[in-house]
């Protein structure tokens, strides 16, 4: 276990040299909250600079008030603005705590997490979720919990969450030299600094390269293609537009008439070829039936 703490403006000025001398290895710093970069934590810049100068490994978190996935994406953009070009050794966490958010149900909470973290990942961040153990179990799906780095809060002698998690926040009343008053205490079970700092730079492909790969069948079809491109950090709409231009995309009516002439084959062959070309086989068949 790697000992750490998390702090915000509520701790005020911190003597990070004393913190490090006490055995703490990492610190997770609140960067801000809400959908505007103007809501930057007023001690974030100071905390980051001084923690780094003391030789501590640093991560960050952003408190959410998001009312929709779109709002969560805006919060992520605000977070990125505040983070700037700073380097982080630990993940950047989406801090989900509002009870009214949990009351909207699991699908809603999942959508917030995915929206926020997707924007972070598209901008090169290692994204994670901070949440208490009970709502993690009740309002976050296992698929989402397994997809992102989890920092779970549960105070006491052990964490009772049965799923995987990287960091456990085990106390909110810790006393650490260099910190005024109480602060949260954490254990990390993953050496995130080693994972993040050795990550190789991602080679980004331009839309023309991706469109050529799509036409070569490397990115699947339909919704699968969209999901895979988005998960890889690419803008699906931009790539698909390039694909359509390369195909000199025709209208549904034109394609339907070509189908009737036999230009697209029959049965599964036709369906696969239409999908590969970016057309909806069901929509085309509907028009074929109308013409016949």
Automatic annotation (TrEMBL):
Annotated GO biological process: carbohydrate catabolic process; cell wall macromolecule catabolic process; peptidoglycan catabolic process
Domain Cpl-7 lysozyme C-terminal: 207-248, 252-292
Transmembrane segments: none
Pfam families: CW_7, Glyco_hydro_25
Classification via InterPro entries: Cpl_7_lyso_C (IPR013168), GH (IPR017853), Glyco_hydro_25 (IPR002053)
One term of GO molecular function: lysozyme activity
Family: Belongs to the glycosyl hydrolase 25 family.
Name of this protein: GH25 family lysozyme
Species annotation: Pediococcus acidilactici
């Amino acid at each position: 276990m790697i000992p750490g703490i998390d702090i915000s403006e509520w701790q005020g000025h911190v003597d990070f040299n004393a913190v490090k001398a006490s055995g703490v290895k990492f610190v997770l710093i609140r960067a801000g909250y809400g959908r505007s970069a103007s809501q930057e934590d007023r001690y974030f810049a100071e905390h980051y600079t001084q923690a780094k100068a003391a030789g501590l490994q640093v991560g960050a978190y952003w408190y959410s008030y998001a009312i929709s996935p779109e709002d969560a994406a805006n919060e992520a953009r605000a977070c990125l603005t505040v983070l700037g070009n700073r380097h982080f050794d630990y993940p950047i966490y989406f801090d989900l705590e509002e009870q009214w958010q949990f009351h909207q149900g699991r699908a809603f909470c999942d959508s917030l997490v995915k929206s926020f973290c997707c924007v972070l990942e598209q901008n090169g961040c290692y994204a994670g979720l901070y949440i208490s153990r009970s709502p993690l179990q009740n309002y976050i799906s296992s698929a989402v919990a397994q997809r992102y780095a989890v920092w779970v809060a549960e105070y006491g002698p052990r964490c009772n969450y049965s799923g995987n998690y990287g960091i456990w926040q085990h106390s909110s009343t810790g006393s650490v030299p260099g910190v005024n008053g109480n602060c949260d205490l954490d254990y990390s079970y993953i050496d995130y600094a080693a994972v993040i700092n050795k990550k190789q730079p991602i080679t980004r492909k331009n839309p023309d390269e991706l469109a050529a790969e799509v036409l070569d069948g490397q990115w699947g079809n339909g919704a699968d293609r969209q999901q895979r491109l988005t998960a890889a950090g690419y803008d699906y709409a931009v790539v698909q537009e390039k694909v359509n231009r390369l195909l000199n995309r025709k209208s549904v009516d034109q394609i339907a008439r070509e189908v009737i002439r036999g230009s697209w084959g029959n049965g599964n062959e036709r369906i696969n070829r239409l999908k590969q070309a970016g057309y909806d086989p069901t929509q085309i068949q509907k028009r074929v039936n109308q013409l016949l």
